[in-house]
Amino acid sequence: MQLAGWRHIYSGKVRDLYTPADGSDAHLLVVASNRVSAFDHVLEPPIPGKGALLTALSNWWFARIDLPNHLVDDRAAAPEVPAEVADRAMLTRRLEMHPIECVVRGALTGSGYAEYERTGAVCGIELPAGLRDGDLLDTPIYTPAYKAPLGEHDENITFARSVELVGEDVATALRDASLRLFTAARDLAATRGVVLADTKFEFGRDPLTGELVLADEVLTSDSSRYWDASAYHDTALPRQDRLASFDKQIVRNWLSEHWDRTGEPPALPERIVAQTYERYRELYVRLTGGEPPYAPVAV
Ligand SMILES: N#Cc1c(N)ncnc1-c1cnn(Cc2cccc(F)c2)c1
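ok -> structure tokens follow
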């Protein structure tokens, strides 16, 4: 997408990164698309309103986190944010990003559970035997990953390896901040009937002050797993329903019934698009207590 005053430099599955077209290097524009991904595929069509809703959720969390973050407050000294993306863009300070995905897990699932099944540990952290997919951990664990080159899969590493990569002081600060932020967010989500199972933070160093700065998006359902607490604790439900991702399960269930996982996935029907937006909206309302800033035009 062309944006006046900005040059596109990278597209992830669901977000796009821009640098100022005038060549200045103090800022970046992070634009959340309406794209949705599942099973490592970007799906069609986009979900109208998704980008704006997740940007609002990230901003809501940033405002409640007592750490310096990369959002630009004083926009007078920064390039203008184009109106067409204003509700789904973050104008940020450009940081020297640490090459670590700071993953914190309060429950064992996904790649963490797969590693546990193979080794009995995750990122070198030994866990009790007999844990099952989705089990809550007695205490959250920090399971960092080394950020692979853009577009490749990240590699789970031990804390000791993160020390080798970024030094003892930074590695310790990343771990301690990530565990503290996760625990606070998990406890807040629990009061809203939502289980925060895991999340991923990214941090950078401010080149002007040297301080540790929270970057990227925070605690969105693209960077985190959120489950409905009542379903999660209903042990009579099938496990897949107890661990249903708040926002993507509708899409995953429909694809499981309409795609054999070969070739490209079929386009989502309009009703699945509408139901999926409603799930994003329900998560936003449950967590924040307010309405999201944007509702797609009724079709
Ligand atoms: N945030 C931030 C940030 C910053 N404030 N300063 C320097 N670099 C980054 C930065 C670099 N990669 N990413 C991940 C990313 C985000 C959005 C879209 C993508 F495709 C990829 C973040």
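The CA atoms of residues 92 and 100 lie 19 Å apart.
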